[in-house]
């Protein structure tokens, strides 16, 4: 195999016994991904936590090709992996082995193991697509699908089922939100990756509250739709040893399986969640009573 250059930032796993001694700077170094999007670049972070790769492709003046790099020791990126994509920018295109998929804002894609050539493009350089990426190791190839929150189904196009648009919370508890599930069993099959988007209604600021952990999978949150002077206070750590990271617009946080993952914003916002692990049961979680948090 020819020698390839390094294209990813590598991050190791962390013990909860160590994390409770971290400074603010160290917490951000280990768990915050910032910036996520860079114009005309593919940016990738490889975490040893369940081997997830989190990143982005933001094509503007040029097309961007996803390659394996030295870190994967693979002939091509999806030789042993699967990929989930959600576009939070302008309309764009994803080419997979010569097939073109038109991916609008808030559209998603699942690309199965074995796709050799993946190219990202934007329709308008003045309003470029922002393709957010989550990738996990895979053991078999599932069909590539374009996923739309609404519209008409077609060949290779999946529309999110009404039962996968779940409204939760209330304005009274400041957590009125809608969860839109993109990649999960029964809708878009994958080896282990699940992805979706949660939108908070005006006046609501809390996500994933009451909070939970899930030992059988980890999670990454991408926060966006946050004004320049706004922020989300992302809470992490063990339930009895909580810590926080201040997150700005279009920044992501890696959450180990032992950690809670809840956020409270200066105003309503949107976030994408991606989960990787051995269990794809969305409701497999260990809830934490608010009275038990420390």
Automatic annotation (TrEMBL):
GO terms for biological process: D-galacturonate catabolic process; D-glucuronate catabolic process; pectin catabolic process. The keyword Metal-binding applies. It holds the Pfam family KduI. Pathway: Glycan metabolism; pectin degradation; 2-dehydro-3-deoxy-D-gluconate from pectin: step 4/5. Keywords: Isomerase, Metal-binding, Zinc. NCBIfam families: PRK00924.1. Catalyzes the isomerization of 5-dehydro-4-deoxy-D-glucuronate to 3-deoxy-D-glycero-2,5-hexodiulosonate. This is 4-deoxy-L-threo-5-hexosulose-uronate ketol-isomerase. It comes from Marvinbryantia formatexigens DSM 14469. The gene is kduI.
């Amino acid at each position: 195999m020819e020698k390839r250059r390094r294209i990813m930032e590598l991050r190791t796993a962390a013990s909860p016994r160590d994390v409770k001694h971290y400074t603010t700077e160290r917490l951000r170094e280990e768990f915050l991904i910032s910036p996520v999007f860079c114009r005309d670049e593919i940016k990738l972070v490889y975490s040893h936590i369940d081997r997830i790769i989190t990143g982005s492709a933001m094509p503007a003046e040029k097309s961007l090709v996803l390659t394996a790099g030295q870190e994967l020791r693979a002939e091509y990126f999806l030789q042993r992996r699967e990929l989930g994509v959600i576009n939070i920018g302008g309309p764009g295109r994803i080419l997979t082995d010569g097939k073109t998929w038109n991916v609008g804002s808030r559209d998603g894609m699942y690309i199965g193991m074995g796709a050799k050539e993946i190219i990202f493009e934007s329709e308008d350089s003045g309003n470029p697509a922002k393709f957010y990426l989550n990738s996990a190791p895979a053991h078999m190839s599932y069909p590539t699908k374009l996923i739309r929150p609404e519209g008409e189904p077609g060949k290779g196009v999946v529309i999110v089922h009404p039962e996968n648009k779940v409204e939760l919370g209330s304005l009274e508890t400041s957590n009125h939100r809608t969860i839109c599930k993109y990649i999960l069993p029964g809708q878009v099959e994958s080896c282990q990756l699940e992805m979706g988007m949660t939108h908070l209604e005006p006046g609501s600021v809390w996500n994933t509250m009451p909070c939970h952990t899930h030992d059988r999978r980890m999670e990454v949150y991408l926060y966006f739709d946050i004004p320049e002077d706004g922020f989300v206070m992302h809470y992490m750590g063990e339930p009895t040893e909580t810590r926080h990271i201040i997150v700005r617009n279009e920044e992501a946080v890696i959450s180990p399986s032992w950690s809670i993952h809840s956020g409270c914003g200066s105003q309503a916002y949107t976030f994408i969640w991606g989960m990787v692990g051995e269990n794809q049961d969305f409701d497999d979680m260990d809830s934490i009573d608010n009275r038990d948090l420390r």
